[in-house]
TrEMBL record:
Superkingdom field: Bacteria
Keyword match Repeat: no
This protein's name: Formyl-CoA transferase
UniProt organism field: Caballeronia calidae
Family annotation (Pfam families): CoA_transf_3
InterPro entries found in the cross-reference section: CoA-transferase_III_domain, CoA-Trfase_fam_III, CoA-Trfase_III_dom3_sf, CoA-Trfase_III_dom_1_sf
Recorded GO MF terms: CoA-transferase activity
Record has Membrane as a keyword: no
Keywords, alphabetical: Transferase
């Protein structure tokens, strides 16, 4: 079945996570993504874990793509890239600002040759501004965006989130921008430059923190497990693991207290209203935790779920990828790799009813599709 983006061609000259993740999102929904790599391969091919010489991480966010290896400083290879761009809808690059221009493939240079081409750029800090030329990874973006400063124990040092959240969010933001530009081109007939950065991705995630700073003028503090405006809303210990409970609304809070056999907390002056509970969250959590730790996870999940209180277990990855809901939603799929055979990968997380996304092929081997790509260019030139 054709995907929603069937017929859309994307040239990806990107590395690491953000740009390639954006291209993967487009590929999952039917776009023909041609990944242009250096002759030695994109850098993420060396990211562990390595299985029989192949990066398992690279395979996760580079599926559904075709690969061609080019030396972009070599005139004939650069000419191949320009031929690919001439027949493409989107050109996506993640060089540090200024590098694409030196290579002859900046937005201005390509827009002059291919006015319908949509050009996507992703960088550490953006294409303009005093820090534009600086290189940046997810770690730097987490720090500079303020995310790190609000993460970690209340009295501890700033913590890095254990996932590359700025990389991932930037890739998602660029996906949205590129699709918006495709829609705009239907009306204008012209491509445009779509650009975002890891820094802006980190900033855009901080809704509560921005509201706090803009209204109070003070820096939002680190809160550990606590929520900035809702209580109780965090992780609670059980006799055999942990459970998350979101009982900020009054009726949820009262139901939680009754199920925990702590009805006296409902009338406690410290916890009567939501703002009271937020102000006294530490005491509230201490009292509730003394109750939750007495029973196993399934006791709380089953019991709270029956009375409508939002809750869920804290799963490890073995539990996660074997959980009936996760399996039912297709979030674990198997794809046949040309070297490794059947391998598991993450499923497509956005479900479309009429034109669903799909995993049609594994991440490519380096230069795997060079022959067919060049043949297509030859046919296009001769037609």
């Amino acid at each position: 079945m054709p995907g929603a983006l069937d017929g859309l061609r994307v040239i990806e000259v990107a590395q690491n996570i953000a740009g390639p993740l954006c291209a993967m999102n487009l590929a999952d929904h039917g776009a023909d993504v041609i990944k242009v790599e250096p002759l030695t391969g994109e850098g993420a091919r060396s990211v562990p874990p390595i299985v029989e010489g192949e990066s398992a991480a690279f395979m996760i966010w580079n599926r559904n793509k075709r690969s061609i290896a080019l030396d972009l400083k070599k005139p004939s290879d650069f000419d191949t890239l320009m031929k690919l761009a001439a027949d493409a809808d989107i050109f996506l690059q993640s060089f540090r600002p200024g590098v694409a221009a030196r290579l002859g493939m900046s937005w201005e240079q390509l827009n002059g040759r291919f006015p319908r081409l949509i050009y996507g750029s992703i960088s550490g800090y953006g294409q303009t501004g005093p820090d534009a030329a600086r290189g940046g990874f997810d770690l730097m973006a987490q720090g500079m965006s303020g995310l790190m400063n609000i993460t970690g124990p209340r009295d501890g040092q700033p913590h890095r989130l254990p996932i590359p959240i700025c990389d991932i969010a930037a890739g998602l933001n660029l996906t949205i921008g590129l699709l918006a530009a495709v829609e705009a081109r239907h009306r204008t007939g012209r491509g445009q430059h779509v650009e975002t950065s890891l820094l802006e991705a980190g900033i855009s995630l901080q809704l509560y923190e921005a509201a706090h700073y803009f209204t109070t003028g003070t820096n939002p503090p680190r809160l550990g497990q606590a929520h900035r405006g809702v209580a109780p809303y965090q992780v609670f210990p059980c006799s055999d693991g942990y459970v998350t409970v979101g009982a900020g609304l009054q009726h949820f809070f009262e139901a939680f207290c009754r199920f925990a056999e702590l009805p006296q907390l409902i009338e406690d002056p410290r916890f009567i209203e939501l703002h009271d509970r937020v102000a006294h969250n530490d005491e509230l959590v201490r009292l509730l935790s003394a109750a939750t730790v007495q029973h196993p996870v399934h006791y709380w999940v089953n019991g709270l779920d029956q009375i409508g209180v939002p809750c869920a277990p804290v799963l490890n990855h073995d539990q996660l990828f074997n959980h009936p809901q996760v399996v039912h939603r297709g979030m674990v799929e198997t794809v046949s790799h040309p070297k490794l055979g059947p391998t598991k990968t993450l499923g497509v997380s956005v479900k479309l009813s009429d034109t669903p996304g799909s995993i049609r092929m594994p991440a490519p081997m380096l230069d795997q599709h060079a022959g067919e790509i060049r043949q297509t260019l030859e046919r296009t030139r001769s037609s």
